[in-house]
Write a structure and sequence with these properties.
With about 400 residues, this protein is mainly α. The chain is about 55% helix and about 0% strand. The protein has 14 helices and two strands, in the order ααααααααααββαααα.
């Protein structure tokens, strides 16, 4: 999502939880959001927080580094597909997209505090690249043809110059759904619309055969937006690189309590607002596949899995083969019982997500009150519960932990 306004949810999202018991699930209305009262506890006085913050910064860097590397692999697979379009190279490019998403999804735990991914310059209005990287939902007809509209989209508009400057210039100008760049633009170009209940979109590789119709424009468009995604991920990696004059250097030198507030606000917001409400409750309520996060490739379930993993990574301080000083160690010093509750909640969320039927669009097609929808409602509750526990931990730490709405 691109245009951001930050509000804090004062309650534990009980309104949404109560709504899940009804036949339909509705996200908490923005009108019910209000500022959380300030905290006055000084539990961190005398504690050295730098090892936890340094460990977090290193984890962020390694995750963005992997995301950039995985995107480079995807970029190469797409280049090979375009050099020789056939069913095999097409499938390889699609598989590379799916694989590259896994590391990126884990980085979403680093959003929601105006870091390099989603900053907003108060003077110029310039924003970080998050909207350019992962904007959703998208009006696919703004990019390319769709069923019943063979000439739709920028690709089929002869007056549109297929250049990265023009693609970005036209991104989400009059409607946030008019997405032109990022993961989901690439996804749509690789898969096309999904009209198939048992699988993803079935775009033909022949759409990318050179010198036929508007295929050259489509080929160039796919190349440009893939290159832009790689460049944006490289920027994020560099901003978190150690021993450099960058965002990370400023981050680790800030007031540690403010930093903890940012970190746990990010975890709580991703859990309760972005996941429980926007990405799960909204499509579950609408039953509209267009509200599904990765609808063209039918990989929305993967989105839930790796977003949950990214949250858990941060709390435990672990990512891949990196084992840092997790916040569970800090919490265990101050409130061992709460720490155990958080770990159990994170594990419970993982299990609940794993139990969702896949592909997710089949859940959306199931009737209200079905077991499939019940499993998803359990996931919503699990994400909300862990967000509440992060807020409880904020009270123990004496820092303000909010749940922000974009």
């Amino acid at each position: 999502m691109s245009k951001r306004f930050c509000l804090a949810i004062a309650s534990s999202l009980s309104v949404l939880a109560m709504g899940l018991s009804a036949a339909k699930v509705s996200p908490t209305p923005v009108s019910q959001l209000e500022q959380t009262p300030p905290l006055e506890i000084a539990a961190l006085e005398g504690l050295d927080l730098s090892p936890y913050i340094d460990s977090y910064a290193e984890l962020v860097y390694r995750n963005y580094r992997d995301s950039h590397q995985d995107a480079l692999v995807m970029q190469q697979a797409i280049a090979e597909f375009l050099s020789q379009p056939n069913a095999s190279t097409h499938l390889t490019a699609q598989e590379a997209w799916i694989a590259a998403r896994q590391s990126y999804l884990q980085t979403e735990a680093f959003r929601f505090y105006e870091g390099p991914i989603d900053f907003v310059d108060p003077d110029t209005g310039e924003e970080g690249p998050e909207a350019r990287i992962n904007a959703w939902p998208m009006n696919e007809a703004f990019i390319d043809y769709v069923r019943g509209k063979a000439n739709a989209g920028l690709i089929n508009n002869p007056d549109f110059d297929v250049s990265i400057e023009e693609i970005i210039k036209n991104d989400q100008v009059t409607d946030e759904a008019d997405v032109t760049t990022g993961w989901h633009a690439i996804e749509f170009l690789l898969w096309g619309q999904d009209f198939y209940p048992q699988g993803p979109g079935q775009r033909s590789f022949r759409d990318f055969a050179a010198n036929q119709g508007n295929n050259n424009r489509r080929r160039e468009y796919l190349t440009l937006v893939t290159d832009q995604l790689v460049n944006d991920l490289s920027f994020l990696k560099d901003e978190w690189k150690p021993n450099a004059n960058n965002y990370r250097a400023n981050f680790v030198s800030r007031d540690p309590e403010e930093v903890l507030s940012d970190i746990f606000t990010a975890l709580a917001t991703l859990s309760a607002f972005e996941m429980a409400s926007e990405r799960i409750a909204v499509p579950l309520d609408s039953s509209n596949q267009e509200d599904e996060h990765s609808c063209f490739s039918d990989t929305t379930h993967q989105d839930f899995v790796f977003n949950a993993k990214g949250i858990k990574n941060v709390y435990l301080g672990n990512y891949g083969d990196y084992y840092g000083q997790g916040f569970d160690e800090l919490a265990a010093q101050l409130d061992p019982e709460l720490n155990q509750k958080i770990i159990l909640a994170l594990n419970r969320t993982e299990v609940a997500v794993d139990n969702i039927n896949r592909p997710f669009d089949q859940v959306l097609a199931s009737p209200f009150g079905s077991p499939e929808r019940g499993e998803v409602e359990t996931v919503i509750t699990a994400f909300e519960d862990q967000a509440e526990l992060f807020q409880e931990l904020g009270a123990v730490l004496g820092v303000n932990v909010e749940i922000l709405a974009e």
